[in-house]
Write a structure and sequence with these properties.
The complex is a heterodimer of chains A (392) and B (212).
Chain A: H1 6-10, H2 21-31, E1 79-82, E2 89-94, E3 97-101, E4 106-112, E5 115-129, E6 134-139, E7 142-147, E8 150-157, H3 158-161, H4 167-172, E9 179-187, E10 189-194, E11 197-202, E12 206-210, E13 213-218, H5 240-260, E14 287-288, H6 294-317, E15 325-336, E16 340-348, H7 357-368, E17 379-390
Parallel strand pairs in A: 5-6
Antiparallel strand pairs in A: 1-4, 2-3, 3-5, 4-5, 5-8, 6-7, 7-10, 8-9, 9-12, 10-11, 12-13, 14-17, 15-16, 15-17
Chain B: E1 3-6, H1 24-31, H2 35-57, H3 66-80, H4 92-110, H5 128-149, H6 153-163, H7 169-176, H8 180-204
The chains are: A alpha+beta (392), B mainly alpha (212).
Chain lengths: 392, 212
């Protein structure tokens, strides 16, 4: 069906809700029972309490010795300590900062300049930071600095990690590591860094770091246990020069798309695709939206990515001959017909169970080097492309 | 060496990129009414809810009800949240938009159309090309509002969910309990009509080179 020009649709602007909308909804939730929404289509949610080692942010609120939830600003002590929480505790070290400390969590805090310094030695703490508040969470594995976001930090000694069924924890730790920190960001973004490196972690992502390895983004947890720490595949696939060129091209494409938006002709009719046939791989399928030839994408991946994928996979097999599984790569192809096309934002997607950070990084960077033509009429096309790796 | 296989099947239309959905952990915390999680949910979804309700109700002169219905949407969502299955077919954003859509449709069907809404153009002091651009943009906005206002509540919802929220036809058909063929054909006619109106505007108000 013919689509309408996005720029025209955007002309119809709507007003924002009032700034206190959130408070009003919260007030209604607190004052009375909420009307249930009748639904015949949603599935019941299991009521079991599921322990998720890395993302256990939902814990019961307990009103121990510290402040409970209140609407107004609370007096903020300049220093404080929780040695080892026996139950979940909520603390507000200063206005605009709330920390939910899970049982076993240990932290100290103190004012430092205009901000707050938190030292988290162990356990899991969820932080809610008002935008504009400078907070730095120091862990033995590195520092998480943030202004205005919602995130969780879990600090796990390596000795404890080995007792967990967590491939991410073990595959992350280098040989000399003694402690691991896992950061999960729910809103906003944080900067996680130590002396070995720095990475930005955005909402919906997680990163892991240790006292012997740099922070890096990690995919979702998988149930299998890693066999052994594996070395990184050779040098990064994308050099600094290539990164700069990629960034410059990206900017040119964005500018060109902004200028083309008004002059873009109506997109050609596109029939709704037929239902997907049954998949022997439990739902794995490649999907593509936007104006780009599917066959061309497939051929480009075969031609340009597969050889590199062999290298990535081979590097891991040298250390772990049994390594294999599914990798679902999600990436955007963005382009302008006069500038060209680039792969942007390649990352492992839902359905990926090959939890090896270096392998995943190698595959993502390899994907970024594949050349595609720009989508017809310019723009962004999102591609989901599954792979199955089987050791021979 | 290793065997490397690729599985490629028929592609499926996807929505343009949107902010990530709330994590399952936060959803579970919101079910337990943890304030931090509740506020995170409200912040994440209030804007799409408000934009849908504004465009559903605005053409009918019911824009003053947007905030009330947005609140109702959120409160109902929290009430039903324990029944939402993160592993189910619908995303949380789609599920919440469904609640907002129902409320809006109910309101439109309950009330008679009131007086014509007044659409104002923002006054700006700028060069002639920029002033033309503002007028042109306002004219386009009015044309879209008028066209959307002509649609029945269900088709209006389908149009907005498709064009402004990126839902696919199957999701829309499920949400509105309509046949997918009906959704497609009605939207096709709505788009054709709107495209004709926009085409006239574009020919009457050709856009100048825009660099500011």
């Amino acid at each position: 069906m013919d689509e309408l020009p996005p720029r025209d649709l955007d002309a119809w602007e709507v007003d924002e809700l009032p700034a206190d909308f959130e408070d009003r909804v919260m007030a209604r939730l607190e004052t009375g029972p909420s009307p249930a929404e009748p639904s015949a289509t949603v599935h019941p949610l299991p009521r079991r309490r599921r322990v998720v080692p890395l993302v256990a942010v939902a814990v019961a609120m307990a009103a121990a010795l510290t402040l409970v939830w209140s609407r107004g600003p609370s007096p903020a002590p300049t220093t404080g300590t929780i040695a080892a929480a026996e139950e979940t505790r909520v603390v507000r070290p200063r206005p605009g900062v709330e920390a939910v400390v899970s049982p076993g969590g240990a932290l100290r805090w103190s004012e430092q300049g205009d901000g707050l310094r938190v030292e988290q030695d162990h356990g899991e703490v969820r932080y809610q930071i008002t935008p504009g508040t400078a907070v730095a969470v120091h862990t033995p594995a590195g520092i998480v600095e943030v202004t205005g976001t919602l995130f969780t930090v879990e600090v796990v000694p390596v000795s404890e990690a080995s007792q967990r069924n967590s491939r991410i924890l073990l595959s992350t730790a280098a040989v000399a590591a003694t402690v691991i920190a896992v950061v999960v960001v729910h809103e906003g973004s944080v900067d996680a860094h130590n002396e070995r490196g720095r990475t930005e972690v955005r909402a919906g992502s997680r990163a892991v770091m240790s006292d012997a390895s740099a922070p890096h983004l990690a995919p979702e947890e998988a149930p299998q246990l890693a066999q052994a720490p594996t070395p990184a595949p050779s040098k990064p696939r994308v050099s600094e020069e290539e990164r700069r060129r990629h960034a410059a091209t990206r900017k040119r494409i964005e500018q060109a798309l902004a200028q083309r938006a008004a002059a873009r002709p109506p997109e050609p009719s596109a029939e709704e695709p037929p239902p997907e046939p049954s998949d022997p791989f439990n739902g794995l399928r490649a999907s593509l939206d936007g104006n780009l030839d599917r066959e061309y994408v497939r051929e480009a991946i075969k031609r340009d990515l597969i050889p590199l994928a062999h290298d990535c996979y081979g590097s891991v097999l040298e250390v772990d001959p049994e390594f294999g599984g599914r990798l679902v790569l999600e990436f955007d192809i963005m382009g302008d017909e006069e500038v060209g096309g680039i792969v942007d934002d390649a990352k492992p997607g839902e359905g990926t169970d090959m939890m090896h950070p270096e392998f995943l990084e190698c595959m993502s960077e390899s994907m970024m080097t594949v050349m595609f033509p720009p989508p017809e009429g310019g723009g962004v096309v999102h591609v989901t492309y599954p792979f199955l790796f089987e050791p021979g | 060496m290793e065997a490397l296989r690729q599985i490629v099947e028929t592609p499926r239309a996807r929505a343009s990129s949107a902010p990530p959905e709330l994590s399952r952990a936060l959803v579970e915390a919101a079910c337990r009414r943890e304030p931090v999680a509740c506020r995170a949910l409200i912040r994440r979804y209030q804007r799409p809810v408000a934009s849908l309700l504004s465009r559903m109700l605005g053409p009918a002169g019911l824009g003053h009800l947007v905030e009330d219905l947005a609140q109702d949407t959120m409160v109902r969502a929290f009430g039903a949240l324990p029944r939402f299955d993160p592993e189910g077919p619908a995303k949380l954003s789609t599920w919440i938009l469904k609640i907002a859509t129902r409320l809006a449709i109910n309101e439109l069907q309950r009330r008679r159309p009131p007086t014509e809404p007044i659409v104002t153009t923002e006054e700006r002091l700028s060069g002639p090309h920029a002033a033309d651009r503002d007028h042109r943009r306002a004219t386009i906005a009015r044309a879209i509002q008028d066209a959307v206002g002509q649609l029945s509540p269900e088709i209006r919802a389908a149009f907005l969910l498709r064009e402004y929220h990126g839902l696919d036809y199957a999701e829309i058909a499920r949400m509105l309990e309509l046949e997918m063929g009906t959704v497609k054909s009605r939207l096709s006619r709505a788009r054709a009509s709107l495209r004709r109106a926009l085409g006239e505007i574009h020919s009457l108000h050709p856009e100048h080179d825009d660099h500011g």
